[in-house]
């Protein structure tokens, strides 16, 4: 389950699933610097300033969705989630793989992470 303002999302699945929704707002990507790997940060810095804010929030919603899918939430270290930056359609956390679904609109960013298979129970 995730919520932002007056929107709520609830997702169910036979495998681990997580979701996050954030209302779009212009932010300084440095706000999330600790959550991003060096590769993700370098990618953000290649974007035009207008795109950096949106993409930083998008990366954040993906990371939070993955961490919710495995049941650890934000204490599970967002930096440990590796996002495929070429497609934004998959992510990994240690030896666990996730398929990502983007249901974003102009005003809300919504990411869903579905674990491909349960390979390990260690978080």
Principal-axes shape call: globular
Name the helicity range: 10-25%
Look at the helices and sheets and give the structural class.
Answer: alpha+beta
Radius of gyration: 14 Å
Query: Can you count the helices?
Result: 2
The biggest beta sheet reads: 5 strands, antiparallel
Strand order of the largest sheet: 3-7-6-5-4
Residue windows where pLDDT falls under 50 for at least 5 positions: none
Number of strands: 7
Distance between the termini: 20 Å
Order of helices and strands: EEEHHEEEE
Residue fraction in strands: 25-35%
Mean pLDDT: 88
Walkthrough of the structure:
This protein is α+β, with helices and mostly antiparallel strands and 123 residues long. Helix content is 24%, strand content 28%. It has helices at 38-46, 49-69; strands spanning 2-4, 7-9, 17-23, 81-83, 90-93, 96-102, 108-115. It has a 5-stranded antiparallel sheet with strand order 3-7-6-5-4, covered by helices on one side. Strand 1 (2-4) and strand 2 form a beta hairpin. The longest helix has 21 residues, at 49-69. The chain is globular. It starts with a strand and ends in an 8-residue tail after the last strand.
